[in-house]
Amino acid sequence: MTTQETIELFEKYVIANYGRLPRVIVKGDGCYLYDADGNEILDMFPGWAVSGIGHCHPKVVEAIRSQAEKLLHIDNTFYSEPQGELAKLLSERAFGGKNFFCNSGAEANEAAMKLARLCTSEEKYKFITAEGSFHGRTFATVAATAQPKYHEGFLPLLPGFVYVPFNDIAALEKAFSDEVAAVMVEPIQGEGGINVATAEYLTAIRRLCDENGAVMILDEVQTGIGRTGKWLHISITMLSRTL
After folding, report:
1. Are 43 and 28 in contact (CB under 8 A)?
2. Can you tell me the distance from the alpha carbon of 177 to that of 212, in angstroms, rounded to the nearest whole number?
3. How far apart are CA 185 and CA 209, in angstroms?
4. Phi, psi of 55, rounded to the nearest 5 degrees
5. CA torsion through residues 231, 243, 46, 103, sign
6. What pTM value is reported for the model?
7. Domain map of the chain by residue range?
8. Can you tell me the distance from the alpha carbon of 126 to that of 123, in angstroms, rounded to the nearest whole number?
9. Chain mean position to CA 132
């Protein structure tokens, strides 16, 4: 199949919710991609930070092969040894506590917001997020995303979301009320332009949440699990009681 034939398949059968480059990728190896026309492409954008250790890393391929030979899928009616081992590893390397496994960053943030509501009180229903943030495209996470371009076509948004300037502690303090259930923040804003949260800002969020009985939610889709050179973003490793 040619590049144009593949593109025509997408145009006919796939909703155009993403802007795509006119390349059909057929293979990946390390930091390189290869398209259907035989071009070698240096990949400096590894799948939204998913393939940071390179494409088709031998250890990853072997782990997938080994597991696929034993069991591909089991529903959550049963226990699974690899899932239990992964939960233990994640807990030990993060803040302790338990894990919620899901399919995407949006689903993780939805769950975090629901948990924040459950563990505070019925009076607390508001969420503070930062301008320039990106937390997902579901109804709640698109409302949490403080970028008007993502709101187009979905107004009015779900109520209860308050936006403040990123790294602005004074604005954050002003936004707090007894109705705030949580503050959700990216330690480094990805979609917003690689904006780095200061340690002072993150510490202020932690303090204000503690003082007001709210939860601090760290959206580490772009920064977690080694993406910044540490297991978690270096500026937040001193924080605890975080969701």
Report:
1. yes
2. 8
3. 12
4. -80, 135
5. positive
6. 0.88
7. 3-69, 104-241
8. 9
9. 15
Q: Which residues pair with 239 in a beta bridge?
A: none
Amino acid, res. 214: A
The separation between the first and the last C-alpha atoms of the chain, rounded to the nearest angstrom, is 46
**CA–CA distance, 201 with 234 (Å, rounded to integer):** 14
92 SS3 class: helix
The letter for the amino acid at 111 is A
pLDDT at residue number 143: 98
- What pLDDT was estimated at residue 238? 57
Characterize the bridge pairing of strands 180-185 and 126-130: parallel
**Domain 104-241 part of CATH 3.90.550.10:** no
Integer Cα distance of 241 and 209 in angstroms = 10
Provide the β-strand partners of residue 25: 35
Return the bridge partners of 27, or none.
Answer: 34
Q: What is the pLDDT along the chain (243 residues), one digit of tens a residue?
A: 899 999 999 999 999 988 899 999 999 999 999 999 999 999 998 888 888 899 999 999 999 999 999 999 999 999 999 999 999 999 998 878 899 999 999 999 999 999 999 999 999 999 999 999 999 999 999 999 999 999 999 999 999 999 999 999 999 999 999 999 999 999 999 888 889 999 899 999 999 999 999 999 999 998 888 888 888 876 565 565 445
CA distance 209 to 211: 5
User: Which residue, 175, 167, 165, 183, is CA-closest to 243?
Assistant: 183
Name the token pair of 80.
Answer: 């699974």
CATH H-level superfamily of 3-69: Aspartate Aminotransferase, domain 1 (3.90.1150.10)
